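Predict structure. Chain length: 311.
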Amino acid sequence: MKGPFSFIILIVLIVILFLSGQVYGESLSCLICHGTSEGKIFIDGEKFAKSVHGTLDCTSCHLKYIDTPHRSADKEIDKATLDMSSSLKLKSKTDPVALSACNQCHPDVFEKVKGSVHGQNIFIKKKSDGAFCTDCHRSPHYILPGKSGQSPVDFGHVMETCGGCHEKESISKDYGFSPKVLERYKESFHGKKYILGHKRVPVCTTCHGSHAVKSSKDTQAMLFGKNRIKLCGSCHSGANTKFVSAITHKPMGRDNPIPYYAEKGLIILTISVIAGCVLHVLLEAYSIIRDYIRKGRIEEDESREASVTGE
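Prediction complete.
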């Protein structure tokens, strides 16, 4: 009785969710299996309902299926989607067609990603380390609005999201960019303000873009040539070539002298101020102790003279 009784309770709960407007259409039947921990691919129905895709049917993305138990759809899948899915097998072994179905609702964004340095890695170089939709937004079943505060692409989390790949030593070696880029950012003026909680400070997507990230050698890149001066000038009026050269992810040293020597100068200045304060306190203490000892000696000498005169 335990098995059938549990199944009935599950059906009742799903119906309640459906009637309350939290789960819609064909998603209801899919969650009968995938909404339980017994299913091979578990989908949290409550989290799915709160996501930006919560009002969609499962088959809106999983185009190969029409209903349970995974009966193949009679409708034909368009050639463009199928062609993209063949490349996206690198990113989704379970259902690459569902991943390529992002193009159905987000065609403009999809094209930007395909033309980006991340998309070229996947579609042209046939590499799996290029970032795609789910690498940044995470599971399509739980995607939250970008400004929700909990989204991995929200202002407060995007730095760690980008750093998840760009901090990997293997990737930095393969593509020749500075290692420990997240650490370098945190060392910068922008990074320190970000850590302190400032909201109007540039993060990864501010300077590199999001969906249409270009190689630094691409003339269309936000950081290429004079584009960089224009970008920095949007916040720093009067920015010039020398100014923008100081903003970099390169390790501080001879190749990046401005922030390197500025940091060294600030460290020396800070130590000097602290040392000066300590020295001042010590000299003041010494002066007080010296005056106290002198005063004691004077009083002692006066006391002796008084005693001698009194005799």
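Summary: Strands lie at 65-67, 71-72.
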